[in-house]
Amino acid sequence: MPPRRRILLINGPNLNLLGLREPHIYGSATLADVESQAQVQAQELGFTLDTFQSNHEGAIVDRIQAAAGRGPLAKEGYTDADKVSAIVINPGGLTHTSVIVRDALLGVDIPFIEIHVSNVHAREPWRHHSYFSDKAVAVICGLGVYGYTAALDPLDLNALHTIPQ
Ligand SMILES: O=C1C[C@@](O)(C(=O)O)C[C@@H](O)[C@@H]1O
């Protein structure tokens, strides 16, 4: 059987307001636009896409653990079928603060791509540091919401592990 490709797209705090918050920085596309475009792309490329957004750090940790079939959500109906082979994550402000989301990603050992809509390196100095970049397969920033499309591109996915059936 061919390897399964199931990708999890996570958006962190405040990204539910994409399209409304600071449009001069983040543009006018909404999170719904981003997720539906990503679903179209997934269908075209033949992988399953799960999407998740939360404003809560612990909820993101629980969802990452569930992506490996572990943690509290694993007891609530998430099964092995929900295991993913790669994660695309825009951690939002947690990028610059979150040891625990970093630890969650390292703990499940699922390769991930970090994406930011804005060019964080052209913004406030404290946005230049990420708790994720040194462990990410790739980091995409400053491409606007096209960054999500780039992250899900098969060229990037080919570089990632897949879960054998
Ligand atoms: O919430 C966000 C969004 C962001 O991750 C981006 O997509 O550009 C950049 C972060 O610094 C910020 O806190």
From TrEMBL:
Q: Could you list this entry's UniProt keywords, alphabetically sorted.
A: Lyase, Quinate metabolism
> What does this chain do?
Is involved in the catabolism of quinate. Allows the utilization of quinate as carbon source via the beta-ketoadipate pathway.
In chain numbering, the residues marked as site (Transition state stabilizer) are R21
Lyase recorded as keyword: yes
Which EC numbers characterise this protein's activity in its record? 4.2.1.10
What protein name applies here? Catabolic 3-dehydroquinase
- Residues annotated to bind substrate: N90, H96, D103, V117, S118, R127
Query: Which superkingdom heads the taxonomic lineage of this protein's source?
Result: Eukaryota
Which top EC class applies here? lyase
Gene behind the chain: qutE
